Every structure is written in structure tokens, then in C-alpha cells.
Amino acid sequence: MASAAVTTDNSATAGGHARASGNSIVIAGDRTQSRMAAHRHSRRVRVLKIALPATAVATAVIATANILGNAGISPSIPPLEIPQIVADNLKMHNPHYQGFNADGGKYWVKAETAQQDLKTLTAIHLQGITGELMDAKKQKTYLVASRGLFDNNSNVLELYDSIDVTGEGGLNAKLTRATIKTKENIITSDQPSTIIMGAGTITSNQLTIRQKAKEYTFVDNVRTYMKPKEASAASDNQNAQQALPFGKPGEPVEVTSNRLDIDDVKKTAFYTGKVVATQAGATMTAPEMTVTYEGAVAPEGGNAAQAAPDGDADRGTKVKQILATDTVVLKQPNGETATSHTALFDTISNTAVLEGDVVLTHGDDKKAVGDRVDYDQKAQTMVLTGPVVVTQGANVLRGRRLTYHRTTSKMQLSSPADVSSGVSAGRITAHFVRASAKASPQPADDDQDESGGGISFGAAFKTDSNSPYDVVSDKLDVDDVAKTALFTGNVSAVQGNISMRSQELTAFYTGSAAIGATGDKAAGGAAASLTHLTAKKKVVVTAKDGQTATGDWAEVDVKKNLTTLGGAVVLTQGKNIVNGTRLVIDMNTGEATIKTEPAATSGALMTSRNGDANGEVFKAERPSAVFYPGQLKKSKIQADNWQVRTSP
To answer: Any transmembrane segments, and where (predicted)?
Structure first.
């Protein structure tokens, strides 16, 4: 039986891949795989035979259609809408930016939408902005704006339209445009703004807020309203309020200026450029003004809640001092003015000091000039020092210290020693001008009756009734309620050719002599006008020819131009001496008549007037005289009913 031999390639693996044997004999498994590969190849060839010609035809058709379309022969193919990359299509919703500062502060800014600026890739346009800035002390500042532009490179935020900036300490800014440097925590604006702080309200055309340094700068058309932190009890007392010309405690202050710089660390507010401050109707103008305060313009966030647990009532600042410099002008509601080089108002001690060429003007004709004036609200006093000159119309007072008490309407003028400058005590002077009046050629009838039975001397005491009175003394005390001016200390009064010396001289007047009041008292009333004078204690009247008359007291009727001496009267002319109890001098005619009191002829006891009830008691006798014949020609003697003794 015959058998077939099959050879195989022993190196063939059992992987199932058919292949030819080394002897070119193909086993059954190898032919199956080859057949499948052949079928796939045949299919590809058939597809390509159809696809290649079809593609060539389609390409030719499209090219022909385009050519015909450009030539306007066939209908155009509708254009395809290709998307473009623009800023409107790159809008982000609810973006959030945040960062940290080197000093430990941080910030964040949110917006409803944000759009990238494709021209400036670092700029982002924001809508519906809110933000928060927090400094190293944890004080926060909040931002709200309608729109803005954030520079992601410089961390600068530009805000526009309806901007609100608020702080935990009470800062509230209303702006229309602002630039915020988030890293530096600086806010600037070159548009009109309104800032509401605990200290009050400030409006300006430009501002810079440096939150880290607690510095605030306002420029151009600055208006400030400073409200008091707390009302003072003295604010209810009108007299107390009128004691100070400005800087009254418990009263708000309004200030306009060109610039305002606030340093909330040093607690100062510095106004410059046409400063005008108004308080309770009083106005102060100066080129510069510095306000020192306590409290904080914008209290720190952590302390604000503790400092004001009851809300805004206790927030704010309390003005301590107001210092105006470089030509200060103060005006009161009634028209009174005060000018000086500087003016310092201390609301803590309730005092005020004006220094440098001080001029106080009251009404139309009252003026006081000095180097310095001190106001003390508690004592209700005004003290003017330096070379003091007080004028009221043609009347003039001169001294070195003038003190006015508002509550009593009393005034004192003196010239004390100044140890610091080495000036010794001096004297005060007064120059009074009486209203012009026609002089009476003869004494009144009652005066003629009084002079009857006396000895009448010639016209040695004649003087012009319109001549002014010049008085020199150590001190002057004026009581504007009683309408008296008391001169004390070696008083000397001169009118024309007649002088009078005494230890005291009281001038009575009508009108008002008050100087230094800051309310209605100083403005009202007519100018002071002398009515009569009263001299006491060692009175001596001297005529120009040396004729003298002495007495215990003297009265001068300014209107009638009559002088009357009383008490132990002695009239002397050269060696001639006349004694009596009463001497009447008619200064219109110059005639002096000496006589006795009506009770003197009976030898009654008389009392000289020394200004009190303790005058010298003496027995009034008939008048006596000693004349020297060689000098009688100088006198006109009426000796009716007189006892006359001549010297041997």
C-alpha cells in the first residue's frame, strides 16, 4: 500500500499564521489567511476605481461654478458665517481679584462681569464693582461703583459713576470718579466729591486719601463742616458763649479754603488759602488756620465699635485748639471786629489769645489797640496788654493793661510794671472832649444868689468850656452800669488854663464806654459824654496865674462849666489867703467866689466831705482873709458883710 510523505518546517510556530514551508509546500492553514488578504486588496482597488474619477469630476464642477460666479453668470453661493474673536465675546461673570500687600494688608475686588481689553491685555473692564481694602491694622475700607477699569499689572483700579467708599471708622465718600492704588491703599479723585467722617462733612473738587498714613488732602473749593463731639454745658449760657470771640465749645464750625490737609496721626487739620471760618454768626478770615483735635477723623475698625457702642452719637472729634496766622480778622454778628497777626482759641481751657498789632473795633467809633488780648470764658474777662490805646470818637485812654469784665460791665485801665521787659510801673492818661456847646456868659441865677455875701476874685479861673479834659492817674476803673469812671492815685485833671489835683476823681457820663464785649452790650448805646466830675481827698485847683484853691472835695458841672469846692476851703493868690467853707468858680467868666455854708454864721459844727461819713469835723466861722496891700490890685474884692484883716 502506497503512503504520501509531508514535510513541514519545524520552525513554524503555533501562532496560527500560515506561511510557505522551506520546501515550497503550503499547508492548508497558510492558504486561508492569504485568501483573506487578497479579498481586502481587491475591494480597495474597486473603490478607488470609482472614487478617483468622481472626485476629479466634483473638483472640476466646483472650480467651474466659482469661475462662473465671479463672472456673474451663475447664482452666487451664500457666504459662510465665520466666528470672530472680539472683547464682547470674552465676557467673564462674577470675577474675583485679590492680592496681598507687603505690610500685611490685603484687598479683593469683585464684579458682576469683566471683559478683557484685547488692545491692552492687562486692562480689564468691570461692571457692578464691589471691593474691600484692609490695612495692616485690620481697618477695612469698602468700595462700590457702577463700573471701572482694573489694571492687573499695576493693581490700579479706576472707578466711574456713583462711587461709594465707606470705612469701618465712619468714613463715607461720595464720588463720581476715583483712582485706587490697591497695594498702597491710596484713593484719589479729580472730580467733585463729598466726604462724610466722624468729624463732619468735607466737599472739594479734588482729594487724596492715604489710608495707611491716615492722611487726607482736599484741594480746590474746600468746604468743611466740623460738628462737635459733645455739647458743652456752657453752650446753653448765652453770656458764656459771648465771652469768646470764636472757638466756642459745643458749637459747630464751618470752614471754606483752597486746601485742607488732615493728619489723623498728629490730630491736625491744616487749612490754607483764603480761609474763612464761621461759628455761631462770628466769622474769622486768615490765610492759614490749623485745627488740633482729639479723637479720630476715621477711627480704626477694631476700636470704632468699642469707642461708639451706642452708634454715631459719640463718634467724631473734639476740637482742642484753633490757630489762625498771618493777618487774622474776626467779625461778630453785631459788626464788631478784631484784627491781629495770630489768633489762638483753646476750647479745652475756654480761652483765646490774639497777638500782634491787635485792633478791637466796637460800633462806629470805639477802638482799642494793643499787642495782645486774652479772653477767658470762665472768668468772663478780656485783658488787653502792651501800649494800650482806647478811643471813642475824640476821647482817648492810654495805659498798658486794660481789663474788661463782661458780667459786671466793668473795665480797669492801668500801667503795671513789666519785669520781663524791665519796664517800671507807669501812669494812665485820659483825654475827654465834651460835646460842643455855647458857653453861658454869666452864671445862673441860683449861683449868683449863692455867691452873695462872699469875696469874689477876678478872672484867673476863666477857661474855654469846650476845652477837653486831660486826666493823669495811676489807675482808672469804669463801671458802665453806674456810668462812672473812677481815677485813683495822684490824679491830675487839666481843662484849658485850670488844673485840679486830688487822690480820687470820679467822672460821670452818659452813653456807653464799654470796650471788649463780644455781644450786644458793646454794640449798643451812644458814645460816652461827660456830665460832671467829683474830686475827693486833698483837692487842689490851680489857675494859670498861680492862684490856687484847696478843699476837701470838689464838683465840676461840665454843662454849666462851674466848679465848686467844699470843706475847709483855702483860696490863695500870692501871699493873699482867704478861708471859707465853699468856693464857687465860674469858668465861663473866671470869677471865683468864696463863702460860708448858710449855717456857718451861727457857729454850727460842719463836716468836710471826704467821700464817706468820716470827714473832718470843724466849727464853721465867718470867712476870713489875709491880704497884702501890694497885691490887692491883682484881685477884685467884694467885702460886703465880710471880716477882712490886713497884715500889720
So the answer is: 50-69
Chain-centroid distance of CA 97 in Å reads 44
C-alpha cell at 276: 474763612
Q: Which residues contact 31 (CB under 8 A, 6 or more apart)?
A: 18
Q: Which residues of 223-235 are buried (b: 16+ CB within 10 A; e: fewer)?
A: bbebbbbeebebe
Helix (H) or strand (E) holding 477: strand 475-479
Question: Could you give the percent of the chain with pLDDT greater than 90?
Answer: 28
Give Cα 311 distance to the centre of its chain. Answer: 28
pLDDT of residue 207: 92
Whether 253 contacts 226, CB under 8 Å: yes
CA angle centred on 177, ends 263 and 226, rounded to 5°: 35
CB-side exposure of 526: number of CA atoms within 13 Å?
6
Angle, vertex CA 523, rays to CA 518 and CA 525, nearest 5: 140
List residues bridging with 170 in a β-sheet.
Answer: none
Convert the pLDDT of each residue in 181-222 to its tens digit: 888 888 899 999 998 877 789 999 999 988 888 899 999 999
Enumerate domains of the chain plus CATH numbers. 37-82 (no CATH), 87-191 (2.60.450.10), 198-347 (2.60.450.10), 440-646 (2.60.450.10)
Residues 6+ apart with CB under 8 A from 124: 95, 114, 115, 116, 117, 149, 150, 151, 152
Give tens-digit pLDDT for 138-187: 778 888 999 998 888 888 889 988 888 887 766 788 888 999 888 888 88
The pLDDT tens digits for 238-280 are: 444 455 677 676 778 899 999 999 998 899 999 999 999 998 8
pLDDT tier for residue 298 given thresholds of 50, 70 and 90: low
First to last CA, the chain: 224
Cell of 77: 453661493
Nearest to 527 by CA among 509, 501, 506, 500: 509
Of the segments 24-33, 175-184, 357-366, 533-542, which one has the largest average pLDDT value? Answer: 533-542
Residue 234 banded pLDDT, cuts 50, 70, 90: very low
The whole-angstrom separation of Cα 89 and Cα 576 is 126
Whole-number mean pLDDT of the chain? 76
For residue 469, give Cα distances in angstroms to 96, 196, 365, 431, 446.
88, 61, 19, 6, 26
- The total number of residues shown for the chain amounts to 648
CB 639 within 8 A of CB 629: no
Q: How far is CA 626 from CA 8, 314, 571, 574, 622, in A?
A: 194, 87, 10, 11, 13
- pTM for the structure as a whole: 0.71
CA distance 614 to 410: 27
Q: C-alpha dihedral over 592, 594, 599, 600, to 10 degrees? A: 170
Strand, helix or coil for residue 455: strand
